[in-house]
Amino acid sequence: MDKVALVIGAGDATGGAIARRFAREGYTTCVTRRSLDKLQPLLDRIRADGGKAHGFASDARKEEEVVALVERIESTLGPIEVLVFNIGANVPSSILDETARKYFKIWEMACLGGFLNAREVARRMVAREGDGRKRTIIFTGATASLRGAAHFAAFAGAKHALRALAQSMARELGPRGIHVAHVVVDGAIDTEFIRSNFPERYALKDQDGILDPEHIADSYWYLHQQPRDAWTHELDLRPWSEKF
Description:
This protein is of the alpha/beta class and 244 residues long. The chain is 43% helix and 17% strand. α5 (153-173) links the parallel β5 and β6 (179-185). The protein is globular, with a radius of gyration of 17 Å.
């Protein structure tokens, strides 16, 4: 059966670039969003480039949907060798105006979804221990994984929790041959959202002042290729101009 890379949250920028990168390396790439229609351009592009791609409408917060997704992929397409959890949920709000409902929803999207998907895939990976295949789980983090800025209490709380999940999983699963990594993407990414809403920041693109999704994807591929004696757990990616 094919070797599979599963990208949860394959949007138009980073997630899509990661999916295309693994497809170019011969992986059957499975991508998810809540709306299947929004995945079609990505699927068409991967296939036009000669890759294999399958799209799934799946809500990463719903346990039954996650269980069904992993079972379907493993039983019909092949073993998942790579899981990338790439859901953001960056919704700013003053703490004075934040609602319990939105705070909880952001945590569900950015943290609970990471737990559910990683747990299900890890269960399959552990069952294949010793089969010689690479097994990698990568979580996409953000500046908020490291520090909580004003107006980002919910996002920072969720991303801090996701980082802690990655650390715990790495310590438990590393001895069993599963490489768990956390990537801190610290800076603006070349997306339509940044272009439309932050034109001054987007203008830095010509100076390499914002992150190129294709270059982010290269780093994810690099993590997956690392030998076990030199694994990176946390990798931070930022433009040269970003303060840290």
